[in-house]
Every structure is written in structure tokens, then in C-alpha cells.
Amino acid sequence: MGIVNIEDELHEQLRRASKASCRSINAQAAFWIRIGMLGELNPGLTFQELAARELKAAGVGAALTGSGLTAAA
Asked: What element of type H or E holds 64?
């Protein structure tokens, strides 16, 4: 594990995004890094497609029923 030096403005944006996403600053930075890497490796996919693929790989799913969105088993 190491330390990454980033610009003050980017750190401030990271801090704000982490609050909005209910993540730690480190978890938010890791999320952005992972999504960025996936985006570079899969330039034809949108953010939503990348996120859906990652959720599916983690075994997370959802099913739409008549009463709304429910977690799939």
C-alpha cells in the first residue's frame, strides 16, 4: 500500500463525493480508480454498463416486480 499525491482541488472533490456516496475517502478514490481502469480497458461500455457488470460479477442483482424493484437471489 502506498500514498498517492493528488491536487488539492481533486482531493476536495473526492471528499465531497465520498460524503454523497456514503464511502470513506479511500473507498471513493478506489472506486474512481477502478471505474477509470475499467473504462480504459472497455472503451465501448458506458459507466452504467461497467457498474452493472461489476455488480453482476459480485452476485448482486435486482428484479423488477409489479410492486417495484426487489433484490434478486
From this structure: strand 62-65
Which pLDDT tens digit goes with each residue over 13-35?
999 999 999 999 999 999 999 99
Please state, in angstroms and as integers, the Cα–Cα distance from residue 63 to each residue in 45, 56, 58, following that order: 22, 12, 16
The dihedral built from the CA positions of residue 24, 28, 31 and 33, taken in this order, carries a sign that is: negative
C-alpha cell at 4: 498517492
Q: Are 50 and 38 in contact (CB under 8 A)?
A: yes
Helix, strand or coil for residue 71?
Answer: strand
Report how far residue 44's alpha carbon sits from residue 65's, in angstroms, rounded to the nearest whole number: 30
Contact 33, 51 (CB under 8 A): no
**pTM of the full predicted structure?**
0.73
Task: Extract the C-alpha cell encoding 28.
Answer: 471513493
